[in-house]
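Hello Y.,

Per our agreement to keep a running log of every chain we model this quarter, I'm adding this entry. I've kept the format consistent with earlier entries: sequence first, then predicted structure.
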Amino acid sequence: GGTNALAYSYDGINWTGLGTFGLSCCVNSVGFNYLRENTVTFPTNLTVAGGQGINTLAYSYDSGLSWTGLGASIFDTKCTSLDWNGRMWVATGTGSVNTLAYSYDGINWTGLGKATFSINGNVVIWEKDTKMWLAGGLGTNTLAYSYDGISWIGLGSIIFDNSGTLTLSYLNGLWVAGGSGVNTIAYSNDGLKWIGLGNSVFSSSCNSIYNNGEMWVAAGNGVSNTLAYSRNGKIWTGVGKTYLTLYGSSIYWSQGVWVAGGAGTYSLWYSYDGINWNYGTNNVTNLNIAKSVLWNGDMWIATGSGSQKILTSPNGVEWRNTGVTVFSVIGHALGWNKKLGFVNIIQPVIATGAGPNTLAYSPDGIRWRGLGNSVFTSYGRDATWNGNLWVAVGSGTNSIAYSYDGLNWTGAGNLIFSSYGTSAFWNGSSWVATGTGETDTIAISNDGIGWNGLGKITFNTVANDVTWNGKLWVAVGSGKHSIAYSQNSRDWTGITSLSIFSTSGNGIATNSKMLIAAGSGTNTLAYSYDGINWTGLGSSIFTGNGFCVAWNGRMWVAGGNGLNTLAYSYDGINWTGLGTSIIDACYGVCWTGRKWVATGFLAPSTLLTNTIVYSYDGITWYGAGNDMFINQGFGLGSNPLIGSFPVPDNQTILENEILDITSGSPYYDYSYTNANIAIQS
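Predicted structure for the entry above:
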């Protein structure tokens, strides 16, 4: 009885009442669903389709026999391509609002706008060997890449004109793409720099390319060929127009058989060698154009236009109607989750600060373990993980240190930054660190252990933070310049005007499309789309100083002091302050992949009790106490798994964490055979 009959807590200590809900007496028992933080999940088979009409996205849990439409809100014209990487879906399409979108379940989708492909998004694939998404389209860019599926880096309008890039495939270090224009087929060793192969094979367009690990087969449109094959992806042989007499739209291989789709006398064909083809039987005339074909682990699916929009086959030879009309106009794309077991290990967090601990470790951003102050005897400032190594910076006996597990640290001395280090960042190939001292404010390293100072030319007082947006390094600090950029990390160019941050630039982050910086002076927040030209946002959010900023794929969170100590924004331009009720000043903020964690200053006279706080949505924050740092924490490091170069997961469980192996419903999946799971300690 009393004021509340139910209450909730995130830590088991601090509770919030939920009232009585009309219960006049009491609640005797509550059930719960344990939050599995470290999991290996084997999903239920999910097939996702894209098309045109009332629905532009749809999904199926029964291998394509029945479908649920998702409407046309994400792509209001059509969805053209889908792929899954074990963590998320990415789709391309055409519409008034989006040409790219992503989803973590294939059902709930988030649009990414039209900045990457201003006209059409045509194709997207994930390649596990390169750990990179590659997408093709038309408009601002014809090719773009991403490491997280959210932040995209355009490669400009290259190789293909007219319709842009239409198809992509990868095998053993070689990318092959198809499109239209002067080149209809091109190849690349890295997905970034491309060599065109002309249009002799397909004079109009190459619409689909697939490989089976031994050879490539392509479908397209031209005067002489609608199908072609290659042994190396570079030298192609046309197969003529005997089979798909009008044009080829799609190609796929699985279960020892090639299936091609398109338009002509027959729309679906199969082959056991990729060269000699036979037409599919049973009802294929009901699919006038086969736009996409796919093996989804249980059966073949084809989609397109005609009296039937979706067909299925057990073997790629005999096709059956499904009677599904989920796409009222035409089906364009098919994808499935490949039943990939998804490993999710919660990313640890390293916090830096001052007091009895200058480094602290947490498996979840809430429970903390102090690591003492022997590495940084004065204070720690920042920590960064690159997939193999942690690098931390601070002040004292060492200004730079490194660790392989986040628990055991080795100091690298203070010869580079004789006063203190302020930040470190990894871009996939090299490290850049910032700080100050007698000789250097910026330093570079290939391994995070041995460092080379670059002097004090750009920031002659201090460099405070640095990031990489996929094309440029951008740093902030004070002295001659408050913002500077570099293409190679060695040669830096300062932005001449101090009008953005007249005192200092303090923090910087990027989502690849734009950069947000926090600082002091004329403005306390600013944004840029290229790292060179900046626009100040004034000082109304942080009336004192802006200190830090981070991005989580959906929103920005920034920290500072003054009228607000935390603020959030969905576009980086319009910000909402969160007041000063949780922390007196915020010096560092990060996204762990599951929650936000922030750290900062606790004034001696304050009634607040936190130097570390956390949030699940960036808006509502909870205190994690002041046990680790006396009065102030300075910085935080984790692995958010997003950004211009997301680093690999930390596939290690520490602190006696639990690993759960889970499955979708039903638990038993007959399509799994001879499954082996290896867990190494």
